[in-house]
Amino acid sequence: MLAWQKFGNGQTPETTGLKGDKLVGNFYVEFDKAYKSEINELIAQGKTEEEAKKQAPLMLEAQQHHFFSFILPMLNSCFNFRMQVSTNFINFI
């Protein structure tokens, strides 16, 4: 999802005429190129390769994006459940 958001420019299988898996693959190739470029820049600044891989801005963004894409729907679901329970309790009283 992040690769499409960063490099997709709104492209879809319908707008490009490509199969979905091919289109997604193209975005991941672009992501990988940009990620490797960031790693090389960080290494040039004196980071070790391991540090650079962990600190590359795209990797940090991908980790944050993954966290929020997993956590937010869960929190929303819990909130909706709590609201439903509260509403039912109030209606019961």
Give the SSE map.
Layout (H helix, E strand, L loop, with lengths): L1 H6 L5 H4 L3 H25 L4 H7 L1 H36 L1
Helix pairs in contact: 3-4
Give your account of this protein's structure.
Helix 3 (20-44) packs across helix 4 (49-55). It is built from five helices and no strands. The protein is an all-alpha fold and 93 residues long. The longest helix is centred in the last third of the chain and has 36 residues, at 57-92. It has helices at 2-7, 13-16, 20-44, 49-55, 57-92.
Summarize the structure.
The protein has 93 residues and is mostly helical. It is built from 5 helices and no strands.
Task: Note the main attributes of this structure.
93 residues, mainly alpha
Biggest β-sheet strands, sense, barrel: none
Mean pLDDT: 79
Give the structural class: mainly alpha
Shape: elongated
Give helix % range.
over 70%
| H/I helix tally | 5
Number of domains: 1
Strand content: under 5%
Please give the alpha-carbon distance between the first and last residues: 45 Å
User: Which residues form runs of ≥5 with pLDDT under 50?
Assistant: 85-89
Determine Rg (CA atoms, Å): 20 Å
Per DSSP E runs of 2 or more residues, the count of β-strands stands at: 0
N-to-C SSE string, H for helix and E for strand: HHHHH
